[in-house]
Model the fold of this input.
Amino acid sequence: MKEITVYNSLLVAWFALAAIVFIALYFVVAPYGRHVRKGWGYSVNNKLAWIIMEAPSPIIFATCFIMRGVDITVPIVIFLALYLSHYIHRAFIYPFTLRGTVRQMPLSIISFGFLFNIMNGYLNGRYLFWFSDGRYTNSWLTDPRFVLGVTLFVIGYVINRQSDLALRELRKDGGSGYKISNSIFYRMVSSPNYLGEITIWIGWALATWSVAGVAFAFWTIANLLPRARANHQWYRNTFPDYPPERKALVPRIW
Done:
């Protein structure tokens, strides 16, 4: 059986699994962060957990580039740089910026995140650097899909990074409790870090104009939209003075 046949089958299955997860997460909130709770088995500290979960994605993606079957063009280099800029930070820098008491993450969540990043690294890297068959020539740089996609990626990256830094600042005194942030993006929504992440991968799907990119964006929405809803409800239940005008994920809408 040819690899492309297996690849296409995995893509279909990946979309189907994302739809199932999306529905499930409306009924069961993943037990990590503010939603951590007992009954989910063995746990490890969250810094190690983030490294284990996120590291496969940049490693596999970079390996696909090294084993590429397409010529190196400027768009290919940009895709590599964008993807690795996000995931090198997420896997090897972000975990060490976490402040406060070391929290625990269930091994079941870590295992799922590990699988998620293996699949996304492979599906996106293998398509871009092999199955795209020379599609991304330098002329792709002026294609409106590429320009808009990269712009959205950068905007999402800035929102995501600034939101993470804002949360970090809330614990600059070493405290471990949760507080209400009033930084620029948190004034609009409860989970701007998720909004940034979703914007990143919608931009990626546009810039690459690939089914693998759409699958990544779909998975990101399926995972983070229900969690943003749960976070918003948690803030409202926990803080009586939580700003009533603040939305869950989309400014002024939801």
Remarks:
- The beta strands are 43-45, 104-106.
- The chain has one domain: 3-238.
